[in-house]
Amino acid sequence: MKVFKLILFSFVLLSLFSCASQKETVEREIEKEPQSEPASIVAWKNLIEINQDKSEMEKLILVNNFFNQNIRWLEDSEIWKQKDYWATPVETLTKQAGDCEDFCIGKYYTLLSLGIPLNKLKMTYVKDIELNQAHMVLTYYAYKGSEPLVLDNKNKKILKGSQRTDLKPVYSFNGDGTWISKQNKLGQKVGSSGRNRLWAELSERMLKENSR
After folding, report:
1. More confident of the two residues 11 and 85
2. How confident is the model at residue 24 (pLDDT cuts 50, 70, 90)?
3. Buried b or exposed e, range 5-15, using 16+ CB within 10 angstroms
4. Residue 175's closest CA among 141, 205, 200?
5. Which of these, 128, 120, 79, lies nearest to 99 by C-alpha position?
6. So what's the architecture of 9-206 in CATH?
C-alpha cells in the first residue's frame, strides 16, 4: 500500500541552494512497506497526507501537538553520543526522542510539507530567561511584519511572542537565510543559513534519506 511519496525533497534543496520553487517536488519520498516503519513515522506521514486542506492555524496546532506528544526530550549526548546533533524528522521519530532543535526541525519540515510558505516559518534561537540557557523554538509569521506565534516543546501552548516573557529572541533562520531577531518581530537579514554547519549537515542527510 502506498503510504506517502515525495514529502520533503524540494524543501531540502531549497535549504541547500535557495531554490525559488518550493512546492513543485515536495512529494518525493521513498515508498516503504508500512510494517517496515515505526508507528510514529506512519502516523507522521498520515498526518501530512490527510491534512493538506486544513487552515494554517489548524496545521500549526496539529503539528505542534503531534511532536510534543510523540517525542520525549533528551540530550543529544544521550541519543547520539554527540555534544550537538541536528536530527532529521525521520531520525527523531525513529528514536522518539530529541532536544529542542529536533522538535523545532520536525515541526518546521512538517509544516512546509503541509503547504505553509517558507517565508512564514523561522527557527529561532532564544534565551530562556528563567533557566538562563539557550533554547530553540519555531516561530510563525502570518504576514510580513506580524507578531510571531511561538511553537515550543516546553510551553506546549501556541502563544504570541509578546506572551512569552520567559524568552528573549537572539536570531532566526530558515532555508532562505538568517536574521538577527528583535523582540516580537523579525530583524535584519544577515546572511545565508548555509553558513550554519549543523544546518548544512542536516540538509545533506535529508537529501540522502530521500534519494534512497
Report:
1. 85
2. very low
3. eebbbbbbbbb
4. 200
5. 79
6. Roll (3.10)
Q: Which residues contact 25 (CB under 8 A, 6 or more apart)?
A: 6, 9, 10, 13
Strands ordered across the beta sheet of 149-151: 159-160, 149-151, 133-140, 121-128, 167-174, 177-180, 189-191
Pick the closest to residue 13 from 30, 1, 26 (CA basis).
26
Neighbour tally for 23: CB within 10 Å: 13
Averaged confidence pLDDT in the chain: 82
How far is the CA of 36 from the CAs of 32, 67, 180, in angstroms? 7, 21, 42
Q: CA-CA distance, 184 to 34, in Å (whole number)? A: 42
Residue 131 in grid coordinates = 533557566
CA 109 to chain CA mean position, Å: 5
Cell 496539529 belongs to residue: 62
Q: Rounded to whole angstroms, how far apart are CA atoms 67 and 65?
A: 6
| Per-residue confidence (pLDDT) for residue 34, from 0 to 100 | 45
Q: Which amino acid is it at 60?
A: L
> What are the residue boundaries of the structural domains of the chain, listed by start?
9-206
Give the pTM.
0.80
Determine the Cα–Cα distance for residues 26 and 16; give it in Å rounded to an integer. 15
Helix and strand element counts for the chain (H, E): 7, 9
